[in-house]
Amino acid sequence: MRAAPGVGPYPLIAPSILAADFARLADETAAVHGADWLHVDVMDNHFVPNLTLGLPIVESLLKVTDIPMDCHLMIEDPKRWAPPYAEAGAYNVTVHAEATDNPVGVARDIRAAGALAGLAIKPGTPVEPYLEILREFDTALIMSVEPGFGGQKFIAEVLPKVAILRRLIESGELTVIVEIDGGINNDTIEQAAEAGVDCFVAGSAVYSAEDPAAAVAALRRQAADASKHLTL
Ligand code: DX5
Ligand code: ZN
């Protein structure tokens, strides 16, 4: 599989700190040492019916970890709010297609501020209308639960969207890291890997484990084995 500069080898595992103890975020970040990316869910109680954390906490977390930070912004008005996450030092900043009528403008601002730019789509949003503009992005996040909460059931019906992206990538028509988010655990990661996912976000599956770092390693092994059986 191809690797973007500074990324890989695939598969990547991105533990979501949404499932961590928010009173001990530095410790919880250290508990997933060996993770490829640290997934941080920013929710504004407008785009989604939940409120989590924002830029000040991301800035503090950046000081206590070397794990590349993957900020998933479930917020309105990303044109205004996304670039500061890149300026702060986030590795990848993902915004929702449903939250902006100018995704390309947002991507350009994020990249200009020094981060990879990601485009997320909700389970009910088709990928086809975004295939052209994905050329302006580095990552494509396919949501496999409704955004807003951790611990939900994996929606396998989104996997054809992963396969569409994978086929375009394999044929050289698109260069993007395919990320999946929601309900990923040891029962669901293989089907996602077989569909062509590069980067797997996992919240409850990692943080409910006695040893979160071991859970990350186990998920990575499982995804690596399954991705050998890519179903294009
Ligand atoms: C949901 C978030 C996810 C969430 C995943 O809106 O975007 O990142 O933390 O949690 P699990 O892995 O528990 O589904
Ligand atoms: Zn997320």
From TrEMBL:
Superkingdom of this protein's organism: Bacteria
The record's EC number reads: 5.1.3.1
Query: What's the record's note on cofactor binding?
Result: Binds 1 divalent metal cation per subunit.
Record PROSITE patterns: RIBUL_P_3_EPIMER_1 (PS01085), RIBUL_P_3_EPIMER_2 (PS01086)
Question: What pathway or pathways are given for this protein in its record?
Answer: Carbohydrate degradation
Q: Which SUPFAM superfamilies match?
A: Ribulose-phoshate binding barrel (SSF51366)
> InterPro entries of this UniProt entry?
Aldolase_TIM, Ribul_P_3_epim, Ribul_P_3_epim-like, RibuloseP-bd_barrel
| Pfam families assigned | Ribul_P_3_epim
Q: Which UniProt keywords apply?
A: Carbohydrate metabolism, Isomerase, Metal-binding
Kindly indicate whether the keyword Isomerase belongs to this entry: yes
Q: Quick one: which residues bind a divalent metal cation? A: 39, 41, 72, 181
Top class in the EC scheme: isomerase
Explain the purpose of this protein. Catalyzes the reversible epimerization of D-ribulose 5-phosphate to D-xylulose 5-phosphate.
State the similarity comment. Belongs to the ribulose-phosphate 3-epimerase family.
Identification of the protein by name: Ribulose-phosphate 3-epimerase
Gene encoding this chain? rpe
